[in-house]
Amino acid sequence: MNADLIIDSLEKIKSNEMAKPGQYLLLYDKILEVIQKQIGSKSIQLWGIQFMYEKFFLNKELKEQQKVELAIYSLNTLIFYIGLPAQDVTAFKKLIEISSLTYKLIFQYVSENDGETVKPIWNKLVELKNFLTNQYTSTYPLEPSDNAEHDYFRNIGTKLNLLNFLSIVIDYQSRSSIIGDEIVGGLGYSLNNVSETHSLIKHQNMENEALMLLTHVVLKVFELDILITPLLTATINHLIILMKKKPQFTSVICNAINSCNTDQKVMSNYQTVEQFKLAKKYVDRTIKVFIKHCKDKKLIPKQYEIGFNKILNVLIDRGNDVRKKNLFNIPEPELKKRKFEGFYNPSKRIKTMTYKSLYTLNDPNDQINNFDVTTVPSHLLQNLVLNALQKASIPKLNKGLQIIATRYENCVNKPNIPLLPAKPQIKDEIKIDINELAEEVDEEKDDDEKGEFYNPESVYTLPPPETLSFQEKKDHLSIIIKNFIKKANEVYAPYNNANRIDDNNDEDDVDDDEDDDDDDDYSEVNRKLKEVAIKSWKKDTWCLLLARLATRGLKTDGSDSPDDKHKIEMARMIREALFKYFVDHPLQVDLMVVWLSEEWHSDMIQNEAKKIQNKPIHNLGYQSNYFYWTEKIIDQTVTFLDPADKKLFIRLVSDLPELNQTFVKKIISIIKSPELSATGILAATYLLQYRPPVKEMVLNELNEILENENEKEEDKATIKKLIDRYA
């Protein structure tokens, strides 16, 4: 039967029949039986994975007993799938998620139903678990490349799903004991809930396996000499949970964290310098959060406290240094790169059918490829080859020979396409009257002698410039933006806001002095600037110019015309460039306010104009730019805010032209963070004192936080005082 017809039939059953009362479980099992019989049909197999994902994993309406039955039905199909050739990445990721839910449900089911009847189910679950845990250190479902380093960076999404599965296995197969405060939702299911006399789930075996998985699989990422940021940060986040619930694993985890020094890591061959610097920054930040959280919750054993305090101080100092400077401008004089172990030219196709192209696995541009080996005596050449073969890694040698063999097969099996001669083009014969041509030449000569050819207007008047296409306008605008950003990073860059606040400088005095210097050096520039309502060139004028170019220079009339759409797109280019600049320079609060104030002013002017004209205020860009980009700035600031930056945060909160409910909620939400609660309370106090329009919003948010049971008592007391004082 055709695969498409089978899928159509299954779709009808899924959509219609399964909706009938009492049919869901029965038809789910029957459909999976049909899928298991279609061994050779890839499309039906993929449909089956999606079916289980929708009807089992994503279905939140199922009762607990129904979930267990579906898990048992799904287990057989999951075993069927792992016995097939490798699935595609997306399908395999869904299989892992289904397997994670299946493992939890069946582990609990077997623990509550000891005996021979559940032994086959337990054996299948162990088979599934072993298969998935073994894939964590492989490239499955992708084929391994010629280089292990390259494989570390491939298929990260699958590895993250497998890491989650491993964490579930470790959690369920070990005893739990909460350290400190109780966890919301309790301990969860673990070995605590399994009888010590269980015939299938042996306590000691389970604990040993959990420890082995943690030590030799999960924590191996810390031993690598390179930084795989997504995997490292995700692993550390999982370890925080284990530190809280599994005191028997704290020593192993602390040793792993203690050994992870980003300064001792080398740059991968598959990373740029910028990517390596960012990797160090985010791994350091994650470790810092891990240590701070564990210190606050008193999860760190005494023997590790001194060492962790030293690491924390180093990371805080390093983070402060990075925030005060542009990360990418910090020099790395001792930057080391990992020795490359793969092939520079692993391509399995060659451009020219020559032996040189066939056998070249190193860089094709390497000058050694031009060396003539025939000049080497044969006995020396034989010794060189034998020594090289003896020293070569066997897996690498096999991989190299496979590449060469594949190249040869591709050349031999390449279809020969005959080269057909081009069709001749027949040109129309052009007949020229020699007498007419001679007469024209004589007439031109006479005109030259009389000087009649001279016409000042035609000679010196330039034609009007051609209208630029939209793409050309975008290209020119992109150049303008890049030049302004470049100017900002050079000698006319703005002061570092941190220094301006810490040094307690009088900003007005500083600006006045510099304005005098600027007026001397840029008098002509200043005269031109007055045309765009800017008195003189200052160190932050570049930002104001870009902001006004976006808001005033590319102002629209609110229509749906192509010209307005083009203007909106170009204005968005400017705004995205400004936002990216502030992501890279998070301390430049003054400049953020310059930009956002210009956006607010522009929105207000346009909205007022609409009111006067009795037009609706909802077209294309009106009233949205200020609130849209301010929300993005606040999200970025709150996400990466450090306690040391509280003055900058208050500066931002105080200088924004307008705050709404969304902004207030995001600002006050940092009180929930253990590290930033003091900064959040300070911001709330400022808003209550100096921004009356948002007073009610702030009080509402504080009342919500006060109802949160997880907040510290000291923070609750401070919040209650604020509410009592300003309510």
UniProtKB/TrEMBL annotation:
Alphabetic keyword roster: Coiled coil, mRNA processing, Nucleus
Which InterPro entries does UniProt cross-reference here? Answer: ARM-like, Symplekin/Pta1, Symplekin/Pta1_N
Compositionally biased residues, Acidic residues: 440-450, 504-523
Query: Which residues fall in a coiled-coil region?
Result: 695-725
Location of region: Disordered: 440-464, 497-523
Q: Which residues form the Symplekin/Pta1 N-terminal domain?
A: 88-296
* GO BP term, pick one: mRNA processing
Q: Any idea where this protein resides? A: Nucleus
GO cellular component terms given for this protein: mRNA cleavage and polyadenylation specificity factor complex
Under Pfam families, the record lists: SYMPK_PTA1_N
Q: What is its main location?
A: nucleus
The superkingdom listed in its UniProt entry is Eukaryota
Instruction: Please report the name of this protein according to its UniProt entry.
Output: Symplekin/Pta1 N-terminal domain-containing protein
Q: Which organism is it from?
A: Candida verbasci
